[in-house]
C-alpha cells in the first residue's frame, strides 16, 4: 500500500468540501498555495466562474482534476425529460473534456420528482431501465471524445431521490453489460461514504480491477449520523476503516488519487483554511 505519511501528492479535493466558504476560483488558488495539485469541481461551481476562466486558472496554477461532478439523473416522467437528460449529459461530457478531467462522475438519478417530494412514478425498476439506457447513450458519445464515465453507487438511503444504483455490484453489472470489452471508458467511482457498509465491497473492488476503478472518494461516517446528506465526517472522525478499503483498492490496481469529498454543515461553518489544512493532515495520518 502506498505511503501517504510524508506528503500529500495523492490528495485531491472535491470542491463541495468548501463550497460554502469560497467560489471555485478561490478554491483553486487556495489549493495551489497548499500544494494540493488536483480537484474535482462541480458543474454549478464551474458555471458560476465560467468554463473558460476555470480552464485558464487550472493551467496557470498547475492544478489538475481527479474527476468532474457530475452527470447522470437520467430517469424522467416523459420522453421530453429523457431527451433533456441526455442532452445535459452530453454537455457535461464536453465540459469535462474542456477541463481535461480523467472521468465524468455519474450520479444516476432515480424516481423523477422525488427530490421535490412529488415523484412522477414509483417504479424503481423503470428508473433503473432508464438509467441503463441513459448511460448507454452517454457512453456512445463519450467514446467519440475520449471521456471515461464513472458510475457512483450511492447509499441505499438515497435510492428514491438521487440514485437507484446503490451497490458496487449493481454498478459493475452495468459496466459489464455496456462495456464488456473493459475498454477503460466505463467504470466506477468508489465513495467510501456510500459503500463502506457493503458485505460484498472487497470482493466487488477486486472484481472491478484497475480498468474499472476510475475514482476514489474519502470522508467518514459519523455515529450517529444527524443528517442523511450533509453530516459526513472528516477522515478519522467516524467508523469507516479507511486504510483497509484503500488497501483493497490498491491491491486491485487502483493507482489514482484519494479525493476528499465532505458534505457537512459542521465543516462548512468553519474557515476554509482550517478545512483544507485538516484535510491535508488527515490524508497523511488516517487515509
Keywords:
287 residues, alpha/beta, 9-stranded parallel sheet, two-stranded antiparallel ribbon, 11 helices, globular
Report on the structure:
The protein has 287 residues and is an alpha/beta fold. It has eleven helices and eleven strands. It has a nine-stranded parallel sheet with strand order 3-2-1-11-8-7-6-5-4. A two-stranded antiparallel sheet has the order 9-10. Helix 4 runs parallel beside helix 5 and helix 8 crosses helix 9. The longest helix has 22 residues. The radius of gyration is 18 Å and the shape is globular. The N and C termini lie close together (11 Å). The model has no long low-confidence stretch (mean pLDDT 98).
Task: Give the topology.
Blueprint: E1 11-14, H1 24-33, E2 38-40, H2 43-49, H3 51-61, E3 64-65, E4 68-72, H4 79-98, E5 104-107, H5 124-145, E6 149-151, H6 168-178, E7 186-191, H7 192-195, H8 201-212, E8 213-218, E9 220-221, E10 232-233, H9 242-251, E11 258-260, H10 265-268, H11 272-285
Parallel strand pairs: 1-2, 1-11, 2-3, 4-5, 5-6, 6-7, 7-8, 8-11
Antiparallel strand pairs: 9-10
Helical percentage = 40-55%
Determine the N-to-C terminus distance.
11 Å
Structural class: alpha/beta
- Estimate the mean pLDDT confidence: 98
Taken in chain order, the helices and strands follow as EHEHHEEHEHEHEHHEEEHEHH
Amino acid at each position: 500500500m502506498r505511503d501517504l505519511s510524508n506528503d500529500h501528492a495523492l490528495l485531491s479535493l472535491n470542491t463541495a468540501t468548501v463550497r460554502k466558504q469560497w467560489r471555485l476560483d478561490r478554491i483553486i488558488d487556495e489549493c495551489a498555495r497548499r500544494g494540493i495539485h488536483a480537484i474535482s469541481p462541480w458543474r454549478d461551481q464551474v458555471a458560476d466562474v465560467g468554463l473558460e476562466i476555470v480552464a485558464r486558472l487550472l493551467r496557470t496554477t498547475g492544478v489538475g482534476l481527479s474527476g468532474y461532478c457530475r452527470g447522470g439523473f437520467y430517469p424522467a416522467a416523459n420522453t421530453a425529460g429523457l431527451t433533456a437528460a441526455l442532452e445535459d449529459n452530453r454537455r457535461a461530457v464536453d465540459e469535462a473534456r474542456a477541463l481535461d478531467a480523467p472521468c465524468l462522475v455519474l450520479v444516476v438519478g432515480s424516481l423523477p420528482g422525488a427530490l421535490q417530494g412529488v415523484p412522477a412514478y414509483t417504479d424503481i425498476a423503470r428508473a433503473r431501465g432508464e438509467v441503463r439506457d441513459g448511460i448507454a447513450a452517454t457512453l456512445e458519445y463519450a467514446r467519440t471524445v475520449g471521456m471515461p464515465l464513472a458510475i457512483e453507487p450511492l447509499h441505499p438511503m438515497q435510492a428514491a431521490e438521487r440514485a437507484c444504483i446503490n451497490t458496487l455490484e449493481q454498478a459493475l453489472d452495468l459496466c459489464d453489460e455496456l462495456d464488456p470489452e473493459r475498454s477503460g471508458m466505463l467504470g466506477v467511482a468508489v465513495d467510501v461514504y456510500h459503500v463502506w457498509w457493503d458485505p460484498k465491497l472487497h470482493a466487488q473492488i477486486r472484481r472491478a480491477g484497475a480498468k474499472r476503478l476510475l475514482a476514489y472518494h474519502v470522508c467518514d461516517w459519523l455515529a450517529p449520523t444527524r443528517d442523511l446528506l450533509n453530516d459526513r465526517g472528516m477522515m478519522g472522525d467516524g467508523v469507516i476503516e479507511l486504510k483497509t478499503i484503500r488497501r483493497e483498492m490498491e491491491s486491485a490496481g487502483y493507482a489514482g488519487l484519494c479525493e476528499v469529498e465532505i458534505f457537512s454543515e459542521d465543516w462548512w461553518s468553519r474557515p476554509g483554511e482550517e478545512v483544507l489544512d485538516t484535510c491535508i493532515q488527515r490524508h497523511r495520518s488516517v487515509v
